């Protein structure tokens, strides 16, 4: 056993799709724990296990390697496959990420006789029931969320906005709390002014909710005043082809770069070069909306001002006029004005970047947030 794991208490971090490149915050939180040691459990894996950690995925295990068998588990919520792959691991609790996964972790926690913590991050608290029922992977959530609300031990929410939505679904107020995942300010360091370029950075999965097309439209208008600016888009998704066509139609192909999904370390390198980070998210017709916007906090910790839409939980990550700007959703003209304001005034960018860093240190320090998380764990496992 590695020296830094001696004396730690074992827990399971449960996520059906393990180690997605778009979800580094899950492993960052778990690996930042000081008194608890996380092993990871899920259905499929999409990336590498953190060094020194254990991960168990159904797709890796014996007869559960075939998709039809995994499909049966999706339908049935049968915990037995997970019990088999755990290979004798005896955790003190399970921490499921996303309510959609909490309903699968619940039968397993009950069989093991241990507490279940579920964190709600965004779509799991905002997507309409009809939209959830249309997805085989999510359909069990609206069917079993009342049971999760009754039997789950603790519910953590990525923002006050998300907590209000979770309470509206009937989850118990006394067991439902806001808990920010946070950013580690000792890992994400403020950039030097000399690193900045006239780059507008957008980091998002390319789906409707992220509002990327409004940013591209705004960037077209912005270039009339700032022809030296460029737009860098990090992320992938179903809208990439249509967004690329929009860029070509607007004659922006030489000024907009699609880099696809990148590891967190490369994303932070691009943040250090950016004049600003922009997240023009929208409320979709299906009800999906931003829970908080972790990328806004990561940029702020780097000392980069941010521009975000005033929807969902984004206002909890941006102090309008101090750490960045909030703009109305679906409003390319307003977006253009605020991006232009920042490009016009280097000192404003610098001042907002300094305040953004201080804001993250004060309210979103991952180390302090993990202390709170471990205190929650303590309250559930005391005496075990």
Explain the overall architecture.
By secondary structure, the chain is of the alpha/beta class. It folds into two domains: 3-182 and 365-381, Rossmann fold (3-Layer(aba) Sandwich); 193-363, Rossmann fold (3-Layer(aba) Sandwich). Helix content is 40%, strand content 17%. A seven-stranded parallel sheet has the order 5-3-1-6-7-8-9, with helices on both faces. Helix 4 packs across helix 7 and helix 9 crosses helix 13.
Summarize the structure.
The protein has 2 domains: 3-182 and 365-381, Glycogen Phosphorylase B (Rossmann fold); 193-363, Glycogen Phosphorylase B (Rossmann fold). 40% of the residues lie in helices and 17% in strands. The chain has helices at 24-31, 67-76, 80-85, 99-112, 123-126, 129-133, 140-151, 160-168, 212-222, 240-249, 264-273, 294-302, 332-344, 346-363, 366-381, and strands at residues 9-14, 17-18, 36-42, 44-45, 55-57, 94-97, 116-120, 154-157, 176-178, 199-203, 230-234, 256-260, 274-279, 306-309, 324-327.
């Amino acid at each position: 056993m590695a020296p830094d794991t001696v004396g730690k208490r074992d827990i399971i971090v449960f996520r059906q799709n393990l180690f997605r490149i778009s979800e580094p915050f899950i492993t960052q939180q778990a690996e930042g724990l000081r008194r608890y040691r996380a092993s990871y459990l899920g259905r499929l894996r999409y990336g590498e296990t953190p060094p020194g950690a254990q991960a168990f995925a159904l797709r890796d295990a014996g007869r559960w390697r075939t998709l039809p068998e995994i499909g049966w588990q999706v339908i049935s919520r049968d915990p037995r496959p997970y019990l088999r792959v755990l290979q004798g691991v005896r955790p003190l609790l399970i921490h499921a990420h996303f309510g959609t996964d909490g309903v699968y972790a619940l039968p397993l926690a009950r069989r093991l006789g241990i507490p279940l913590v579920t964190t709600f991050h965004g779509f799991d608290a905002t997507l309409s029931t009809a939209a959830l029922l249309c997805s085989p992977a999510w359909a069990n959530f609206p069917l079993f969320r009342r049971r999760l609300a009754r039997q789950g031990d603790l519910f953590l929410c990525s923002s006050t906005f998300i907590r209000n939505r979770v309470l509206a679904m009937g989850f118990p107020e006394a067991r439902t709390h806001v808990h920010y995942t946070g950013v580690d300010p000792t890992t994400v360091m403020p950039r030097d002014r000399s690193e900045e370029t006239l780059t507008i950075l957008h980091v998002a999965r390319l789906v409707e909710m992220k509002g990327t097309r409004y940013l591209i439209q705004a960037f077209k208008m912005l270039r009339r005043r700032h022809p030296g600016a460029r737009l860098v888009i990090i992320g992938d998704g179903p809208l990439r082809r249509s967004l690329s066509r929009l860029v070509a139609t607007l004659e922006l192909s030489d000024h907009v770069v699609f880099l696809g999904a990148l590891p967190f370390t490369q994303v932070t390198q691009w943040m250090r070069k950016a004049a600003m980070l922009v997240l023009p998210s929208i409320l979709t017709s299906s009800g999906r909306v931003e829970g908080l916007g972790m990328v806004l906090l990561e940029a702020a910790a780097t000392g980069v001002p941010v521009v975000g839409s005033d929807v969902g939980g984004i206002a909890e990550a941006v102090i309008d006029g101090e750490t960045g700007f909030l703009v109305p959703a679906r409003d390319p003209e307003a977006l253009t004005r605020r991006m232009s304001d920042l490009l016009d005034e280097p000192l404003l960018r610098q001042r907002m970047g300094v305040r953004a860093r201080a804001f993250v240190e004060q309210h979103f320090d991952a180390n302090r947030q993990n202390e709170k998380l471990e205190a929650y764990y303590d309250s559930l496992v005391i005496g075990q």
